[in-house]
Amino acid sequence: MDLSEAYREKVRDPRTWSGIGLDPFYGPKERDQHYDRALSDPGEYPFTRGIHRDMYRGKLWTRREVCGLSTPADTNRWLHFQIAEGVSGLDVIVDVPAILCVDADHPLAAADVGVNGVHSCSLRDMQTLMEGIPIEQVSMSLIASSLTAGTFLAQYIALAEGRGLDPSLLRGSIQNDPVHMRFCGAGPAVPLDLAVKMGADVIEYCVRNLPSWNPTTVNLYDLREQGLSAAQEVAFGFSTAFLYVEELRQRGLSIDDFAPRLAFYCSAHIDFFEEIAKLRAARRLWARTMRERYGAQDPRSWRFRFAVHTAGSSLFPQQPLNNVMRVAYEALAAVLGGVQSLHCCSYDEPIALPSRQAQTLAIRTQQILAYETGVAGVADPLGGSYYVEWLTDRLEEEAVSILRKIEEMGGMAEAVRNGWVDREIEQAALEEQKRIESGERLVVGVNAFQSEELEASTPGGLLRISAEAVQAYIDSVARLRRERDKAAVQRAIQHLRAEAGRGPHHNLMPAVIQATKALATHGEILGTIRQVYGYGYDPLGVLESQF
Q: How is 89-115 classified by DSSP, letter by letter?
């Protein structure tokens, strides 16, 4: 493009990222709904404008950065680095072998141990991971979404008890959304029936025993990362949440027993206004659904509480410093949308695990938002914008339409079984890639404004994981099996097997915690449960149970 063309350039495609067509401007004619019914003040039903009247004047969002790499010892050092840089909450993610419910010394796991998260096979690993961290004082987010959520939380509870702490005082969250992991490469490890059962076990146990702990953050984010639209993100995520809601109600819990404790994990993608409107629409839709569909009476049950992860899929390896701006805009959208907890991606995320320089900058992005920009001073500062309110309404309408389609199929479980959800995800991903490759969607530095000079290196260098440290960790897992009290492990596994045989609505978390204290590994615990439910001990089909 020459200078003359650049000067005359105009908007090429007046649509949102999700494809919603836009008028040149919006005015009063788009607002025909009554204020109290459609919006209301912040802190009041239907919570379109926020779940708290004073929002960040009462408490800033929790500022986290996802952490998990190499070994538990390496991740522990990284957590202490984050604390020194000023995060206000911690956020630990497990690696792929853990997501697949296998141990680090599994014959097929070595190449992936510690690559994009941390592995914690046993209570000993959790002790190393949290060494020197006052867990009674910190808000901890444990990002484990597959069946591993139960074992990861069990390790954390056992750690607290081992320190002489009352687990009921623990604050934080466990992601615990096994159902969505079948769309993220973990299908063999998370059969649908077992995913719903184990997810509900964790929620029920936390509701009864951990009053300050969020027992799930239903993962809309990973669904959006597959290429879904903003409305699909909300609808698919809510439909998944309903699976857990229905399971818990079958166990005899009322909606107000557990709905105040449910939380969500959302994306903040690159279309600034669409993401703000999406979060506002989700808040209103959840409030109406909880009150009108499920009959919740407690106003806390109506509140859509959510964390945000800026969109990794919006970042590119070309000209990596461009990602700094993308992340900052996405973080701003999350804050203006009313987020409770925020993680900012690092600019080098498409290339490698974050370097210290990159993650420090991600932390600083949140701190500048909180302390310098003034955006935290007023609840819902974009409320009343003709465009934002129109787009909020439109996204809610689209999400409701998708929810109806899923309900007509018989609910999310049936939509998963018949392959509809998979097809929708695959089609969305394909269409998005086509738009980029054709140039319909311009991505600076990728299909427009390329520069070989800017792509020659990554500022701050690349983080490399020590193969020797990972191998030493894998060896330590084998050593644990040799050194632990084998009879105690055997008894704990037998007890777990008996408890698992008591039916799908019987909660296994107490037995999982007991096995964890006996130093059973998460692979052994989950393999045992899988066997009772008619699945192979090893999701990868290699190992047999030693018990």
A: SEEEEB-HHHHTT--TTSTTTGGGTTT
| SS3 (DSSP) at 465 | coil
pTM: 0.94
Tokens of 67: 């952490």
E strand map for 283-430: 306-310, 341-343
Q: State the DSSP H helix or E strand holding residue 265, giving kind and residue range, or none if neither.
A: strand 263-268
Cα separation, 468 vs 470, whole angstroms: 5
Backbone phi and psi for residue 286, each to the nearest 5 degrees, phi listed first: -65, -45
Among candidates 17, 55, 85, 63, which has minimal Cα distance to 326? 17
Extract the tokens encoding 472. Answer: 């030493």
In angstroms, the CA 371 to CA 389 distance is 27
Tokens representing residue 375 in the block: 């955006």
Q: Which of 472, 465, 521 is nearest to 112 (CA)?
A: 465
Give me the CATH code for the 60-442 domain, please.
Answer: 3.20.20.240
> For strand 90-93 and strand 139-143, is the pairing parallel, antiparallel, or unpaired?
parallel
Domain boundaries, the chain: 60-442, 467-532
Residues 114, 119: Cα–Cα separation, whole Å: 6
Both tokens of 179, joined, read: 């159902």
Which element (helix H / strand E) includes 67? Answer: strand 66-67
Written as one letter, the residue type at 328 is: A
Beta bridge partners of 66: 91
Q: Which two tokens stand for residue 102?
A: 């296998």
Q: Which helix (H) or strand (E) holds 217?
A: strand 217-219
pLDDT tens digit at each of 547 positions of the chain: 666 676 567 777 788 988 898 887 777 765 656 787 888 999 999 999 999 999 999 999 999 999 999 999 999 999 999 999 999 999 999 999 999 999 999 999 999 999 989 999 999 999 999 999 999 999 999 999 899 999 999 999 999 999 999 999 999 999 999 999 988 888 889 999 999 999 999 999 999 999 999 999 999 999 999 999 999 999 999 999 999 999 999 999 999 999 999 999 999 999 999 999 999 999 999 999 999 999 999 999 999 999 999 999 999 999 999 999 999 999 999 999 999 999 999 999 999 989 999 999 999 999 999 999 999 999 999 999 999 999 999 999 999 999 999 999 999 999 999 999 999 999 999 999 999 999 999 999 999 998 877 776 778 778 888 899 999 999 999 999 999 999 999 999 999 999 999 999 999 999 999 999 999 999 999 999 999 999 999 999 999 999 9
Sheet holding 62-64, edge to edge: 62-64, 341-343, 306-310, 263-268, 217-219
CA atoms of 92 and 69, how far apart (whole Å)? 9
CA atoms within 13 A on the CB side of 484: 23
